């Protein structure tokens, strides 16, 4: 099967499964909604502190919500021996990885696009002018989390304690993404010139490129073990 067809069909399979079950996006959405409500009530009396911390709050919600979705990425393949069929498939393992990555990235972005207006409402943010830049930051940072998260999801799927092992493996490696995302988001929300936080955007771009290549290469080894 041609390389790009494999990517398309793997991503399409995950999307169709999610449309039928609505399990991943719904669990991600309700978890993030709880986080937003908790933080909004916590800072309801101190708007100044909330504005200073909002970038970190946003990415705490996005990151932990993403981990929930990533944890379910390969767990569905355990049913009906689907994982074994992927392992013995003659299709490129790298293409399978990219298909899974595309689906995970889309799920996370959908939830973020739904949730961000809630941050705007609950924390009274003015983001009209900065919205295109914020969407770019969200896309770059979410791609970074999805890249390593998809790889570690495949690595831990057959471990009994996979719900615990995935965040333990993912979060230390995702620290550069989280720091860069928080700093870039803070700069954008404050209306700072891009030159002041452009290095964080470049860090996100470099991280995405490097770890997409490394994960693409490592995925075949993981699937064969």
Please characterize this protein's 3D structure.
It is a single chain. The protein has 225 residues and is mainly alpha-helical. The protein has one domain (3-224). The protein is built from eight helices and no strands. The protein has helices at 3-21, 23-42, 47-71, 82-88, 93-122, 131-156, 162-189, 194-224. Helix 2 packs antiparallel against helix 3 (47-71) and helix 5 packs across helix 6 (131-156). The radius of gyration is 18 Å and the shape is globular. It starts with a helix and ends with a helix.
State the order of secondary-structure elements, H for helix, E for strand. HHHHHHHH
Unreliable spans are none
Total beta strand runs? 0
Helix count equals 8
Which strand-content bin applies to the residues? Answer: under 5%
Structural class assignment? mainly alpha
Structure summary:
The chain is an all-alpha fold and about 220 residues long.
Sequence-ordered SSE layout with sheet pairings:
Elements: H1 3-21, H2 23-42, H3 47-71, H4 82-88, H5 93-122, H6 131-156, H7 162-189, H8 194-224
List key phrases describing it.
mainly alpha, 8 helices
């Amino acid at each position: 099967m041609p390389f790009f067809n494999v990517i398309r069909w793997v991503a399409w399979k995950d999307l169709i499964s999610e449309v039928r079950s609505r399990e991943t996006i719904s669990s991600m959405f309700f978890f993030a909604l709880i986080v937003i409500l908790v933080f909004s009530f916590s800072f309801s009396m101190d708007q100044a502190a909330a504005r200073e911390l909002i970038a970190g709050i946003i990415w705490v919600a996005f990151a932990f919500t993403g981990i929930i979705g990533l944890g379910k990425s390969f767990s569905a393949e355990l049913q009906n021996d689907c994982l074994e069929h992927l392992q013995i498939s003659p299709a490129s393992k790298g293409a399978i990885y990219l298909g899974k990555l595309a689906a995970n990235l889309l799920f996370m972005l959908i939830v973020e696009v739904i949730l961000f207006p809630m941050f705007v409402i609950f924390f009274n943010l003015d983001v009209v002018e900065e919205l295109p830049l914020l969407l770019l930051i969200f896309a770059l940072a979410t791609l970074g989390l999805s890249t390593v998260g998809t790889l570690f999801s495949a690595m831990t799927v057959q471990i009994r304690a996979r719900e615990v092992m995935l965040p333990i493996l993912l979060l230390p490696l995702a620290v550069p993404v989280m720091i860069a995302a928080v700093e870039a988001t803070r700069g954008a929300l404050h209306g700072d010139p891009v030159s002041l936080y452009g290095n964080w955007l470049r860090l996100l771009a470099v991280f995405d490129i490097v770890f997409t290549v490394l994960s693409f290469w490592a995925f075949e080894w993981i699937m064969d073990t």
